Amino acid sequence: MLSQPMTIVFYIQAALWIALLVLKAFAFGDVVMRPQEAFPAADKQTKTLWLILVGLALLIHLIPMFWSPLSLLNIAGTVAAAVYVVGVRPAVREAGGRRGGQSDGPYGPW
Fold first, then answer.
1. Is 108 within a domain?
2. Spatial CB neighbours of 58, under 8 Å, sequence gap ≥ 6
3. How many domains does the chain have?
4. What is the pLDDT of residue 55?
């Protein structure tokens, strides 16, 4: 009888862990793809700072000691990744932050 609630809690934590991993990996990949000049053009912090913040968030997420999605460092990393995805990414994209610096293809917008 006691094992069933623990099983549900385990699956909820596992799903949350995977969802946060996907968020952090997406944010890190997006920072890597953006050109360095797009960040100051969008009046945001530097690409290097975002690489460090989101990269550390992803690294900490993968360390077994912090596998709980509710650990303090994991929550801080999730906040950093979410701030990037929700606030910085749209501004950097708007400033022409696609790879190669081009937002249009040879025949117009993609």
1. no
2. 21, 24, 25, 27, 28, 77, 81
3. 1
4. 97
Q: Is residue 77 part of a domain?
A: yes
**Which pLDDT does position 103 carry in this prediction?**
53
**Host domain of residue 65:** 3-98
Please indicate, yes or no, if residue 104 is contained in any of the structural domains.
no
pLDDT at 95: 85
Task: Retrieve residue 86's tokens.
Answer: 């929700």
Q: Is residue 85 included in any domain, yes or no?
A: yes
Alpha-carbon distances, residue 61 vs 14, 28, 39, 79, 106 (angstroms): 13, 13, 25, 12, 41
> Which of the two residues, 76 and 97, has the higher pLDDT score?
76
| H/E element, 43 | none
- Judge contact between 29 and 51, C-beta under 8 A: no
Beta bridge partners of 108: 105
pLDDT band for 61, please (50, 70, 90 cuts).
very high
- Helix, strand, or coil here: 109? strand
